Amino acid sequence: MLNRNQQPEISLIEPILIPSPEKRIMPNGMPLFLIQAGEEEVVRLDILIHGGQWNQSQPLQAMFTNRMLREGTSNYTSAEIAEKLDYYGAWLDLSSSMNYAYITLYSLNKYFAQTVEIVRSLVIEPLFPEKELSITIEKNRQQFNVNNSKVDVLARKELNRSLFGTEHPCGKYAVEEDYDKLNRKVLKQFHAQFYHSGHCTLYLSGKVTPEIIQKLENAFGQSVWGNVTTSPADISYTPHSKSEKRICIERNDAMQSALYMGCLTIDRKHPDFLKLRVMMTLFGGYFGSRLMNNIREEKGYTYGIGAGIASYPEHGMMIISTQAGNQYIEPIIQEVYHEMERLQNEPVSEEELTMVKNYMMGETCRNYEGPFSLADAYIYLQSSGLEENFLVQSQQAIKETTASDIQHFARTYLVKEQMKEIIAGKIE
Fold first, then answer.
1. Whether 278 contacts 224, CB under 8 Å
2. What is the pTM of this model?
3. N or C: which end of the chain has fewer CB within 10 A?
């Protein structure tokens, strides 16, 4: 007989088996990864171009090159691209990161031949038309000015600048004047250097059929396209951190202040990284974390506070962030340091550690539950320069992390003296 007055024992979720994609090499040498899963007649195509902010010669170049792809090609105007994608029930997303550009297409299987042809045209033969470029620049300039008035944006940018320096790609942010330096020539140069078949990887996920694969191969994989003789040089940058521990950005009209605290830390390839993620999740990475329980639930200083590791090429960055009334910022900083000291000096209970592990394993299950989320996982590995076994190792690290590990990592990586404190808002 089940005793409903007794709480069930907490047990750890077992690791799950993550299916691997099928890898093919198309006739022109381009790698194609296939993730065959799902019953709906829909597929997702992801095109990864190995070139991003890390490789650009001036601010905004990588982002605008990718963003402008849909604004007109040799075969289609911007209006025709939008109309045709809408007519075929397709959805297109263009984005860029530190070291990659991404083109993502969701398409019904029955219209894949038509939609992939549109994507082929905008990737291989964009025109970067002057009229559309000027409209896009002005639209983004307005958004830039709106964002730059927000205290959380100002604080986050300043944290990166203070840790990396303004000449490092991770700390070099665009200013409004940079929008005036954009033109067709700048974008065409970046496109010619990075957008070619020797620099491109494809992921196809969903209900993948031989017919769909053939249509994709016809569009992108038969012959070499673009200037394949160009290849980016391996570039390495050295961070130059500012000496100041606390930096304040005055915004007298701010209703709340933004607080960002952080320091440089290990990158994703370091042997400690996966177990360090467990510690950071316990510290401030989910709703039941130490920071949330103390600063939100007990003290009521803020609606939310979080901590995590932002990963960049060659470096990681610990970040603790929140927004709160101006009068609460100083007490929050002290409570953050208090929780750091608790982790360093008091072993975590097995019950709390098991709850954190179950949360992380549950997130893992959700991240790999469908073909598109699986594609996201493997794209993450490629863009981060990680091996496939990273996914298995991640689950193993969650399972194996001990209370002693948590204490050791807190003492090693959560160092008060290394933490920058960035406050943006009404400084009292």
1. no
2. 0.91
3. N
